[in-house]
Amino acid sequence: MTLEITDLRFQYGDITVLDGINMRVNAGEIVGLLGPNGSGKSTLLKSIPRIHNPDAGQITIDGQNVEAFSPNELARVASYVPQHNDSALPATVFETVLQGRRPHGGWSPSEADQVAVTEVLERLEIEQFATRRMSDLSGGQQQKVRFGRALVGNPSVMVLDEPTSALDLKHRLDVMELVSTHVQKRDVAVVAALHDLNLATRYCDRLALLHDGRIYDAGSLEILTPDTIRTVYGANVSVVHHDGERVIVPDTSSRTNDTDAS
User: Fold this and answer.
1) Which of 66, 131, 162, 174 is the most exposed place for a label (fewest CB within 10 A)?
2) Which of 233, 243, 245 is nearest to 201 (CA)?
3) What pTM did the predictor assign?
4) Are 79 and 159 in contact (CB under 8 A)?
5) Residues 117-169: pLDDT tens digits?
């Protein structure tokens, strides 16, 4: 499956949030969507499962416009993992993951649906939490459950909106390892909005940087240069290499100089 976004434009009233967005995500790769808060990442991602309807442009999956899919058809092909916490819902872990099977069979789960949920829980190593309420889990455990809900339908496209937000370092790595392993095994296309640039350089195959509602730059990991990061994020950084990986290091010299001057 290939996800393609062409000339996408989105407005809130008179405010243009996205303007002329072009992006392609191929099967078997993770494309990291980067940019500061308010740059339009969530709006772009929500346009893929039609939570938002763009004002212009189109989004296609394997050449078919997403507007041509019925809601259930689109949910079977493309899964969406939101960034917001839904742990207040009075559902167990098993029930939450089972929701991901509804596009395949409706509200009455079959034996195959229940087997699929059990397999996903075992794969994510959270089967011991099956009967626990979501609200009783830690943030990292909850995120694994949300990821399981997306996985259980075996989609060809996955849309992840800040999948590591509010997680500690271990759980950030756990979640991204799960995403990476799934992509390799199932050959799905993944687009993920990320705040952590070092996670992006470690796990993403390609990057797209949003700035003022446009794609400022897109391509391989090499696009993350100090000049680009300064323009997009307004932050001074250094880019170093460690064990063959690019690492983004904040530049504290300006802060030190300011302190010395005071």
Assistant:
1) 131
2) 245
3) 0.88
4) yes
5) 999 999 888 999 999 999 898 877 888 898 899 988 889 999 999 988 777 88
pLDDT value, residue 261: 40
Query: How far is residue 17's CA from residue 45's CA, in Å, rounded to a whole number?
Result: 13
Token code pair at residue 11 = 């407005």
The pLDDT tens digits for 20-43 are: 999 999 999 999 999 999 899 999
Domains annotated for the chain, with CATH where assigned, are 3-224 (3.40.50.300), 225-262 (no CATH)
| Nearest alpha carbon to residue 216 among 89, 82, 91, 33 | 33
Q: How far apart (Å, rounded) are the C-alpha atoms in residues 256 and 239?
A: 19
Angle between helical axes of 169-186 and 139-151 (0-180°, round to 10):
10
CB-based contact 183:28 (threshold 8 Å): yes
